[in-house]
Amino acid sequence: MSIEYKRNAPKSHLSFFDTLKVGSSGLRSRRLRSALSALGITIGIAALVGILGLSESGNADLMNELDALGTNLLTIEAGEGFGTGTVDLPKDAPAMVRRITPVYEVATVTKIPGNVYRNDLIRDGRTRGITVFAADLNLLKAQRGTVQKGAYLTKVTSQFPSVVLGSVAAERLGIKTLTPEKKIWLDEKWFTVVGILNPLPLAADLDRAAIIGYKSAEKFLNHDGSVDKIYVRAYPEHILDVRSVMAATVNPEKPEEVQVSRASDVLEARAAANTTFTNLFVGLGAVALLVGGIGIANVMVIAVMERRNEIGLRRALGATKFHVAIQFLTESLLLSSIGGVVGIIAGIVVTATYSVFREWPIVMPEYAVLGGMVSSIVIGGVAGFYPALRAANMPPTEALRTR
Amino acid sequence: MVKPKVENAPFAVQLVDVSKIYPGSPPVEALLNLSIAVSPGEYVGIVGASGSGKSTLLHVIGTLSRPTSGAVYIDGLDTAGMSDGALSGVRSKNVGFVFQDFFLLSGMSAVENVENGLLYSGIRASERRIRAMNMLERVGLSHRIKHLPNELSGGEQQRVAIARALVHEPSFVLADEPTGNLDSKNTDSLMELLATLNSEGTTVILITHDPEVAAMSKRQIVLKDGRVEGDSLS
Questions:
Q1: B120:A317 CB<8 A
Q2: Do strands B219-224 and B227-231 pair parallel, antiparallel, or not at all (unpaired)?
Q3: Which residues are bridge partners to B14 per DSSP?
Q4: How confident is the model at residue B116 (pLDDT cuts 50, 70, 90)?
Q5: Domain segments of chain A: what residues?
Q6: Do the chains contact at A317 and B117, CB–CB below 8 Å?
């Protein structure tokens, strides 16, 4: 007989669609509470997605900048001499460097002693940190820099007392527009400002410089023609080789006195520093997410206590323990995933808005969106697990008790 | 004990020598060697004072709790060895509950609450809606289909609950003090409805403390101290 009843025994059912409907019924009847508890997840996910998006967008901008500036620029300067203090680069260094085959651009600059003032009435010493540099005519090309106003030095202007100002120098001197009469007081002589440069990310010291030609440096400032720094562009695929032979080429006798650096390394270091920062904020976002998850668990525990009678009723109507558990688990999963989706959207909006504002390319990494979705679902599952178990294991007779 | 043979036309519910003892010191004997059989189509009123074991009997008949000893047959099925899930299946098919506090879900309309009676039966949603509408019409509430429970009077709410208990065509309706929260006018009309439904073939088991309410059923069973003290059938 026991076999017979098993064959005939009716079974409880609950379709997937009905499970969703039942799971969402609790949310629909307590909208404000549901929205507030989902908000915790929304904030956490929005923070994570936003931070990852912003850091990727910012890095993408930095990489674009690097691409535009090129990673094939080497800077050569004199290092410390062994027990001899400062040393100079050999006079023929630029010519030697030009002979390295993959090198296609060589530009030199030299710091010239001398102070720069807005006019001849300003007291000595108030130089505002502006230095004087003599530079080659192809400096701008080697740096891939651009001119903000006027023009860079030409073959003609470099022979006359003409000066081009770095972006910071122009600002400090209060020069915003160029007129033919715009002059500055440079080492006790009047120099005509012919151009203002845009910032040069690969040579930030030139931003604070007043740049003159070598010819005028020799004529007006008694420069002897030596060089301080050589900027070298070489073909990118050979840049490491060029770098390795550079010191010996510049100063075959004392290669250890030559310092070779790659300007783009600074920008790459900046990108790496961004990553460290991002990790910190991702950690903070994860904490926000954890708090959001606890909020959902809390709301679910309260829901199970409040809806005891509903649980009893459903058991009386034929719901199994599993049906009751899955109802509350679904409710918790819905809460967290709705919170997650809203958070992802908010994170994308924040990233897009800020990127547009900063003129960055908008980059939203898939792993941030995917990770946000997966983590909100996992949190919903974990937060709902215990309350669902508690609801399922509530004896129906207990659940149906009133008062 | 030899189990009685299940006949071709089994009882809607049959309790054989059922005892329910709650452990403790001293143990509480809520039901003691109690045997009741209800045939299909009957209208049974079980009456007893508080503490007579009414609630325990309700839970045992409704398969919400298992007896300590004895057998419970629902529509001929022996529930003794059944798993919790199998018992749920029996409830979804064979038992229709009506509670004193209605237990309608507040966020759902009358028809949706009635549909809940079919939710775990495996019937398609569109079919559930049709049956729920028909059932609401049978209890005289076809004009209240879309109303939420708090927009209905107590009498109407209990009618919705009765429709929910009947919509899956159970072997019997188990009503626990259904009039406990109703005024006398609504009590009368509800009892009239139960009588009508019974005359249309529904088996009704009514559990109450009120002899007046129990008197409206065709057969009365008096419960005292966990035993049957009187059965108008025998």
A1: yes
A2: antiparallel
A3: B37, B73
A4: very high
A5: 15-66+269-399, 88-253
A6: yes
